[in-house]
Design goal:
By secondary structure, the protein is of the alpha+beta class. It has one domain. 40% of the residues lie in helices and 25% in strands. It is built from 6 helices and 6 strands, in the order H-H-E-E-H-H-E-E-E-E-H-H. The strands form 2 sheets. The protein has a 4-stranded antiparallel beta sheet. The protein is elongated, with a radius of gyration of 17 Å.
């Protein structure tokens, strides 16, 4: 039996991620090989879409390059998180497109700027119920 036949996903992550890796061409995700993905993701400029500090919170939107839906529905390639909220809230939103991700990023920033940290925390808690 060849090494390829004996490879497990742990031994070869490329097998697990095959068909789920993307890089950006402008703002559009395009499928890519494992090698292309690794090369593309080395640059923070390729990963970070927007980061906004609002008081002690950081709203961060990135391109993950990995389809977190893994073929079950709409792709999830972008991720927005808010860092600095209470420990019981660890929000993460995933999106298929650049525009969806940026729209949510800016909505979260606007909420923080206009209504504050507690209002955003309450909104997130309601979403998580």
């Amino acid at each position: 039996m060849s090494n390829t036949e004996n490879d497990t996903f742990a031994d070869n992550p490329e097998n697990l991620l095959k068909g789920h890796l993307y890089r950006l061409s402008g703002k559009k995700p395009v499928p890519c090989s494992f090698e292309e993905y690794i090369t593309f993701m080395k640059s923070a400029a390729n990963r970070i879409i927007e980061q906004t500090q609002v008081d002690d919170l950081l709203v961060s939107t990135i391109f993950t390059g990995i389809d977190h839906a893994f073929g079950a529905g709409e792709k999830r390639l972008f991720e927005t998180k808010v860092f600095g909220l209470p420990d019981d809230i660890q929000p993460r939103w995933r999106f298929a497109t650049w525009n969806q991700a940026v729209r949510e990023h800016r909505r979260l920033v606007a909420t923080l700027e206009s209504r504050g940290k507690e209002a955003l925390a309450e909104e997130i808690r309601k979403r998580q119920e």
